[in-house]
Amino acid sequence: MIILKPTSIVIGSILRKYPILGGESNPSISGLVAGGELIGYLERVLILTFTLVGSYSAVGFVLAAKSIFRFGELNKSNDRSMTEYVLIGSMLSVVITTLLGTLVSLGLDVKIK
Question: What pTM does this model have?
């Protein structure tokens, strides 16, 4: 449960320090309401699952797939701050989830032995 809302709050608080230039009034920014949050949840569930089963190459696959989908969208945008914002959020999400997954894996491994 830590990888869902608590991690979103941590990522959001870090990203507040790096606002998108143009702010909320930028009309070129559009999408689903809370779509990024839902994508983050799904991404973190997949990464945690793959980390717990020791399939680190699958974590790389999730990152590559997300990057491919985002590349076209961000490449069309002339807004460098938006690209950086998305990359920072994605990297934070991956790092936090991979660290938590690794810690849980190590904890489970110790309890089994």
Answer: 0.69
Domain, as residue range, for 86: 5-12+34-112
20 within some domain: no
DSSP state of 104: H
Res. 41 pLDDT band, cuts 50 70 90? confident
pLDDT at 15: 84
pLDDT of residue 78: 63
Long-range contacts of 24-27 (CB under 8 A, 24+ apart): 26/79
Task: Please name the residues in contact with 26: beta carbons below 8 A apart, sequence gap of 6 or more.
Answer: 20, 79
How many independent structural domains does the chain possess? 1
Question: Residue 23, class by beta-carbon neighbours within 10 Å (0-12 exposed, 13-18 middle, 19+ buried)?
Answer: exposed
